[in-house]
Amino acid sequence: MKSNINFLLITVILTTFISCNQKPKDDTPWVNLFDGETLNGWTQLGGEATYAVKDNSIVGTTVHNTPNSFMTTDKMYGDFILELDYKVDPSMNSGIQIRSNSLPHYMDGRVHGYQIEIDPSERAWSAGIYDEARRGWLNPMTNNPEAQKAFKQNEWNHYRIEAIGDTLKTWINDVPAAYLIDDKTAKGFIALQVHSISDEQKDGTDIIWKDIKILTDSLSKYSRKSTLTPINTKNALGVDELKNGWKMLWDGETANGWRGARLDEFPTIGWEIKDGILTVLPSGGEESAAGGDIVTKELYGDFELMLDFKITEGANSGIKYYVDTDINKGPGSSIGLEYQILDDARHPDAKLGNHDGSRTVASLYDLIQADVNKPMNAPDEWNTAHIISKDNHVEHWLNGMKVLEYERKSDDYRKLVSESKYAQWPNFGEAEKGHILLQDHGDKVSFKNIKIKSIIKE
Fold it and tell me: Phi and psi dihedrals of 159, rounded to 5?
């Protein structure tokens, strides 16, 4: 009898031990992105690294003399939760692209977007967030030693990636890794990267992915809380941008560094600073009739300027550079070279100008028309303007596409000026330095992420 009791007691203890150590059943309604047998639903972009299916896994293999390669989902994803396992050769660098795109106008179709890093090197930044072919590092692992230690060399590693709204969160082997708030891109494909290799690196090294699954419904139910403090990139610079000499031209909260073009301080009416967005308020479409233009207090010579802007239907505004606020103190806007901001489809200015098309969006106002195939987003969607001026060579970019270029002070440039509304201003646009200006044209237009890099002549 005693032996039976002991047997029952041991059975109960073993059963309890086993049940306590079993993982709880995962009832998440996952959808597999990989069928385990084929690459159906996937397309390779970029380089020519090889991808093959073996043992229910996708195997990516490095080759020499080719750029980064990406095996991309044919379907685009916005909000989702993604989980997968991978094993990587210690000599490799790789990553998982999310919300990424390949657009003809952007670097000839180069894959760009958020990358969840796979980094087996001593740096150990796996599960950090890098912005491929754009801004560089957004959420490195410098201040997260626990996540750095979580990576398993020469073993399978597990990633969980959440992309919900403007919030991106990652875990590596269930350790919180990255927590980023960034609204640059809302939707794109998912891709498995095989990084390019140098001539010194051995080719034929592998990275293997398996159990790739995604959730796109009921995300709030399944989303996990992260113990990390988020990194917010709105009106802030990334790690690589700081290293490369960029600085914020607007802090996202105050009027510091700016004043009215005809005032000593920032306008008290006509402009609104709210939720990290700088907005010129509508006042009937008249030029500089309410708060007026605003300018930087500093002057800039050679520079790169980037900012995000959003128009409303029928809106008109502009970004001016090399502005001299002592010129044209009468009615209207201050004088300077202008990157036009306009709703081409609805504003009559699109059909005006002394040179055909020279008042359309991203054009050099009244002088040079921007590329007619420019990638302008619809009203109430954000766009990115980029202006580069170096050694009198100037470029206008819109959403990653160069839409025009010209040479300041050249004979061709001066001829264009002589045929324009600016002919009355001697040496128009030829100043060595000037203010950056955001225009009040009486229509509602918003700005954010305003940053500048002064180019130092060597």
Answer: -110, 140
**Within a 10 A sphere around the Cβ of 357, how many other Cβ atoms?**
16
Whether 396 and 370 have beta carbons less than 8 Å apart is answered as yes
Which candidate, 19, 66, 89, 51, places its Cα nearest to that of 212? 51
- pLDDT (tens digit per residue) in 191-222: 999 999 988 888 899 999 999 999 999 999 99
What is the pTM assigned to this prediction? 0.90
Q: In what order do the strands lie in the sheet with 316-324?
A: 258-260, 294-296, 435-438, 316-324, 335-342
**Residue for token digits 């959730």?**
215
Question: Residue 354: is its pLDDT beyond 50?
Answer: yes
Q: Beta partners for 309?
A: 383, 447
pLDDT classification of 286: cutoffs 50, 70, 90: low
Separation in Å, CA 32 to CA 35, 51, 90, 169, 211: 7, 18, 27, 20, 7
Task: Give the Cα separation of 325 and 317 in Å (integer).
Answer: 17
- Residue 114 is which amino acid? Y
Measured CA to CA in angstroms, residue 31 lies from 41, 68, 112, 216, 400 at distances of 13, 27, 25, 9, 33
Give mean pLDDT, residues 122-147.
Answer: 97
Report how far residue 287's alpha carbon sits from residue 10's, in angstroms, rounded to the nearest whole number. 87
Report residue 376 as tokens.
């302008």
Three-class HEC string of the chain:
CHHHHHHHHHHHHHHHHHHHHCCCCCCCCCEECCCCCCCCCEEEEECCCEEEEECCEEEEECCCCCCCEEEEECCCECCEEEEEEEEECCCCCEEEEEEEECCCCCHHHCCEEEEEEECCCCCCCCCCEEEECCCEEEECCCCCHHHHHHCCCCCCEEEEEEEECCEEEEEECCEEEEEEECCCCCCEEEEEEECCCCCCCCCCCEEEEEEEEEECCCHHHHCCCCCCCCEECCCCCCHHHHHCCCEECCCCCCCCCEEECCCCCCCCCCEEEECCEEEECCCCCCCCCCCCCEEECCCECCEEEEEEEEECCCCEEEEEEEEECCCCCCCCCCEEEEEEEECCCCCHHHHCCCCCCCCCCCCECCCECCCCCCCCCCCCCCEEEEEEEECCEEEEEECCEEEEEEECCCHHHHHHHHCCHHHHCCCCCCCCCEEEEECCCCCCEEEEEEEEEECCCC
- Check pLDDT > 70 for residue 2: no
